[in-house]
Amino acid sequence: MATILIIDDDDLMCATLANLVQHSGHQATCATSLHAGQKQAETRLFDVVFLDVHLPDGNGLDLLPRLEALSSAPEVIIITGFGEPSGAELAIKSGAWDYIEKSSSVKEICLALERALQYRHEKQAVGRQNQVAVLKRGNIVGESHKLQTCLDLVAQAAGSDVNVFIFGETGTGKELFARAVHENSQRTRGNFVVVDCTALPETLVESLLFGHEKGAFTGAERARDGLVRQAHCGTLFLDEVGELPFTLQKAFLRVLQERRFRPLGGSHEVASDFRLVAATNRNLEQMVQSGQFREDLLFRLRSYVIELPPLRERPEDLQVLTRHYADRLCTRYGLPPKGFSPDFIDTLRAYPWPGNVREFIHTMEQTLAVARHEPTLFPKHLPTGIRVQVTRAAVDHDHNHDLATDLRQQVAHNLPKLHDYRDTVYHEAEKNYLHDLLALAEGEIAGACRLSGLSQSRLYALMKKHDVSRDR
User: Fold this and answer.
1) Can you say how many angstroms the Cα of residue 71 is from the centroid of all Cα atoms in its chain?
2) pTM of the predicted model, to two decimals?
3) What's the CA gap between 441 and 462, in Å, rounded?
4) What are the CA-CA distances from residue 243 to residues 164, 261, 299 (Å)?
5) What is the dihedral of CA 412, 414, 415, 421, to 10 degrees?
6) Is there a contact between 168 and 279 (Cβ–Cβ < 8 Å)?
7) CA end-to-end span of the chain
8) Which residues touch 422 (CB under 8 Å, ≥6 apart)?
9) Of the candidates 113, 110, 100, 103, the residue with the CA atom closest to the CA atom of residue 49
10) Are 376 and 338 a contacting pair, CB within 8 Å?
11) SS3 349
């Protein structure tokens, strides 16, 4: 018997779903608000959550990350009376099992529930079988939920030979995750070969990738294996694959399909059994639309996607990152261990880190250079640019908060009586209407009467009341 949580502010819908759940042999619990639902989910173990979108105290979709972060990690079925394509997309991307409308048939709702429970049962069974395996993380540092989700994807990808596509902003650690996929796979004994697509010279790119035979071109004094061949029985990592020259994309597509290629100057093809991992910070879908990237190659690359979060979306990792890199850099430079003040961490969390972890590491190096012999790190030790940006943002926030508070207080102190307020609004609306009417009628009274349906005497009376002239 499974335990099901229903979060919906419609009492009738709650009762209906509860009856369906109980009729299917499971236990149902209902909550009619976001807060009550979250409290139930945090205090009890649930297998599946039926979650409404429009709740009296918030949007149900905002609860998805918190449900996923729970130890029970229940499967979530979004159920809404107002189906929206954008909402469906957001729900699925946020980890929901399904997105169905309340107008769906009883059969459809029950089928969604049973499939979610079947998936959960099989996932837990596989997890129990593989729980002894310890993931090799390398230099991936952090314990946040978003980072753990990415590591779970690494573990899943490592168990197969599927092509992996890693997407993330510059500095998020795409190569670290690619190495983690390799180190945790069956190919860990093979080479991990990095191809930096931004540094491939167009004149030598085919030779670098596919190798060449002796005498294939001037200066080719001996045969040489290319990077694709070097990745035989290992992993080929295409870093910044969006920069791969368009002229080479078709040739590389065939290599992915056949795992065979012909070296420059060669008379026969050579096989290479490699596992492909590709990464980019560019929007390849937009590049496809603009004709800069082949759609068929994109389909091949995106067999299994790992999307890395930027550092600003996992601020809870900044303390462990600070400890890790402070210790590491102190050891490298022969410095005693450093402590850090709470406001040092607060400043790091207030900065948006556009360069992500790469910028963070560079910042820590600068910080330790400044505080070389001082035992504790303070905000004063951080680069000036970071401190200025954080301070400006704080001042702007406080200023805007003060303005908003002042406006609310002014409204509260000067709030007119409803009757007076209504008369003022009506007066202004009537006056504006007359201006627009006479402008449209080009000052002609007869035309204004015809457009408005007013009599001539009534129109003149209103113009006198509001001191409106027929002159434009």
Assistant:
1) 22
2) 0.66
3) 16
4) 17, 21, 17
5) -160
6) yes
7) 78
8) none
9) 113
10) yes
11) helix
CA distances from 405 to 40, 66, 396 (A): 35, 31, 14
Decide the pairing of beta strands 48-51 and 75-80: parallel
CB 340 within 8 A of CB 322: yes
The DSSP-derived string for 11-32 is HHHHHHHHHHHHHTT-EEEEES
Opening angle at CA 305, ends 300 and 310, nearest 5: 135
Q: What is the DSSP string of 23-73?
A: HTT-EEEEESSHHHHHHHHHHS--SEEEE-SEETTEEGGGGHHHHHHSSS-
Looking at the DSSP bridge assignments, the partners of residue 212 are 224, 264
Question: Do 183 and 138 contact (CB within 8 A), yes or no?
Answer: yes
Where residue 131 falls among pLDDT bands split at 50, 70, 90? Answer: very low
Q: Which residue matches tokens 């012909």?
A: 262
**Residue 427: enclosing H or E segment and its boundaries?**
helix 418-440
Assign residue 189 a region (left: φ > 0; alpha: ψ between -120 and 50; beta: otherwise): alpha
pLDDT for the residue numbered 192:
97
Chain centroid to CA 189: how far? Answer: 33
**Burial class (CB within 10 angstroms; exposed 0-12, middle 13-18, buried 19+) of 323:** middle
Q: Residue 133: phi, psi to the nearest 5?
A: -70, 135
Average pLDDT over residues 394-400: 64
Interstrand relation of 260-261 and 270-271 (parallel, antiparallel or unpaired)? antiparallel
Query: Kind of pairing, strands 48-51 and 3-7?
Result: parallel
Taking a C-beta distance cutoff of 8 angstroms, is the pair 44, 37 a contact? Answer: no
The two three-digit tokens of residue 123, written as one number: 């996932």
Q: What is the pLDDT of residues 188-215, one digit of tens each?
A: 999 999 999 888 887 778 888 888 887 7
| CA atoms 186, 187, 188, 189: torsion sign | positive
CB 198 within 8 A of CB 240: yes
Residue in the block written with tokens 């002796």 = 214
The residue among 157, 167, 154 whose CA lies nearest residue 238 is: 167
**Residues written for the chain:** 472
Give dist(CA 305, CA 154) in Å, integer: 10
Q: How far is CA 263 from the centre of its chain?
A: 40
